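Weekly modeling sync, notes
Attendees: S.R. (lead), two postdocs, one rotation student

Agenda item 3: backlog of single-chain predictions. S.R. asked that every request posted to the team notebook include the full sequence so nobody has to chase files. The rotation student volunteered to paste the first one in as an example of the format we agreed on. Action items at the bottom.

Example entry:
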Amino acid sequence: AKELSPLFGIEITSEMIQRAYEISFEKNGSLDTYRMSEIGEKPNPALVEKAYARIIEKHGERWMDSIKSLEQATGVKPVFTSEQLRPVFEEYFQHGWYGRKGYIGVEHVTELTSIKPPVDLVEKAAIKIVDGGHGYIDQGKAIKEGIDRLRESTGVAFEIPEQEIQDRYQKAMMDRKAHVISNLHGAFGIRPS
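Predicted structure, as returned to the notebook:
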């Protein structure tokens, strides 16, 4: 843009370009990485950080690609907080998006941002695995494998409190569900107390 400005008798300053980026961001909620190469000047890092925050806030279908494109176009490395990523991790755990080869999941968020999911969310996901693994008898091994897959894919050390397991034993005994008792023992090797 600056190269063409003399042809029109106009001087385009960096301040004008930065203001144009700001107006575009306010209007569209994003920065157009394609136009950056045409303009020849990158937006200031503070505006790029706002754009990263907006991408994470919305975390649409291709949000990771948007972050990578913006970083490549601007040279500004994204910096996120665990608080910003918590809603993303919550959504991914809710849908079971972890530990699946070839699919976008929790491990990809960690790889992109260097932030691991909060321990409390991982523990909730582990308990969900335990609670969802009782369709049949002899599912203890499958529950254990599911928890191991969760641990491996998140890189987060967590423990399922023994009291959580004992509570499930008590409920299974009250509901007379022997297969649940068998599955819990198979998964954890803990006896009901």
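Discussion: group reviewed the output briefly. The longest helix spans residues 14-28.
Action items: rotation student to repeat for the remaining queue; S.R. to check formatting next week.
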